[in-house]
Amino acid sequence: MFARLRSDIQCILDRDPAARSTWEVITCYPGLHAVWLHRPAHWCWHHGLKWLGRFISHLTRWFTGIEIHPGAKLGERVFFDHAMGTVVGETAEIGDGCTIYQGVTLGGTSLYKGTKRHPTLGRDVVVSAGAKVLGGFVVGDGAKIGSNAVVIKPVPAGATAVGIPARIIPSKSGESADVTEQGQKFSAYGITQEDDPLSQAMRGLINNAAGQEHQITLLWQAIETLAETKKRDCVPQDAAREESFEADKLNQLVGK
Question: What are phi and psi for residue 6, nearest 5 degrees?
Fold first, then answer.
């Protein structure tokens, strides 16, 4: 038991640069208090004392601002960083080493009792501020959920989910798509250097349209040159002899 308590404290010291001492973590970190209070609540829930489990959960919410249903399963070294307004549903499962920030909801989309309604987070998952993970699916090991993302489908291991509804940025060569430098152990808030997939698609369409306009312009210029040699004006008055498609401006709008 004491080894696990030390592990809970150490994971905060490892992941939060603002944590200066063990005493500060023990006394001033509501995320740690929420985890510690969840354990007796979870024990009560699974030993027939469901009202007591819910009451402990209610007190935890009142003291910490973090609501964890006593039926939820938490692994080791789970860190609720700030985490005010975080809600974890009854059938949610949080794997070892996960980090969850403020305003996160691990919620369900089904009203059927006795079913798996809430998500399962694998190991070392980061769920960023304001994210909503809704449904009884799996978020793979090492995945990142970007801030304010709304995730309604499974996320592969090592991938990053961003947007509303969330779009998946897959990992490359088995490594995460975030800004974590090689060899670094932790990256906060699910930030990614990769482009949003929707932005990539939009830029592809913009670049294709710009290329098509360029080719059409070249064709009209060639026809105009040919018409001059034949002494016949066969180029329509509205033919686009110059390019006007503002590809650079549109790429900036979609976030180049």
Answer: -65, -40
Strand partners, 138: 120
Alpha helices in 81-184 (DSSP H): none
d(CA 51, CA 225): 87
Instruction: Report the chain (256 residues): mean pLDDT per 10 consecutive residues.
Output: 84 88 92 93 94 95 94 92 91 92 90 85 92 92 90 89 83 55 52 60 76 79 74 62 67 59
Dump strand ranges (E) for the chain: 67-68, 73-74, 79-80, 87-88, 93-94, 99-100, 105-107, 120-121, 126-127, 132-134, 138-139, 144-145, 150-151, 160-162, 167-169
Dist CA 74 CA 121 (whole Å): 10
Which tokens sit at 95?
């794997």
